[in-house]
Amino acid sequence: MRPKHPAGKRPTRVAELLRESLASILLYKCADPRLKELTITEVDMSPDLKQAKVFYVVRSGTDMEDTAAALDKAAGFIKQEVARERILRTMPELIFLPDKSWERAQRLEELLKAAKEEKD
């Protein structure tokens, strides 16, 4: 779990708006089919709203490195589309990061299941 910023509610509200905007852009406006295979799980805005860490997961069976390369290639287009929606006066730097919390949660669930079976 990533820490939430104590700077107030604005970064949280902007992060949610940005997450919705990015999801819509990736689904409807990006031509690259590799980007249709990912889900934006969370956006973490810096308190000054100048940087946004965008966390994503890809569907199982999809190559993570291939998807990351597609995101890097489309980053300029994505940023331009977000800017057109005028969520903020100045566009934050977008940093795309794979969300590993899903993998950790799945691994923990497997361990708990194994421990329960061992106990029985």
Provide the number of structural domains. Answer: 1
Determine the N-to-C terminus distance.
Answer: 31 Å
Overall outline: globular
* SS summary, helix count: 3
Average predicted local confidence, pLDDT: 86
Low-confidence runs: none
**What does the main sheet amount to?**
3 strands, mixed
Please state how the strands of the largest beta sheet are arranged side by side: 1-2-3
Approximately how much helix is present in the residues?
40-55%
Number of strands: 3
CATH superfamily: K homology (KH) domain
Can you tell me the CATH class?
A: Alpha Beta
**Would you identify the CATH architecture?**
2-Layer Sandwich
Give me the secondary-structure category: alpha+beta
Q: Radius of gyration, Cα only, in angstroms?
A: 17 Å
Q: Which properties best describe this structure?
A:
three-stranded mixed β-sheet, alpha+beta, 3 helices, single chain, GMP Synthetase, Chain A, domain 3, 120 residues
Task: Explain how this protein is built.
The protein contains 3 helices and 3 strands, in the order H-E-E-H-E-H. The protein has 120 residues and is an alpha+beta fold. It has a single domain, classed as 2-Layer Sandwich (GMP Synthetase, Chain A, domain 3), CATH 3.30.300. The protein has a 3-stranded mixed sheet. A hairpin with a 5-residue loop joins strand 1 and strand 2.
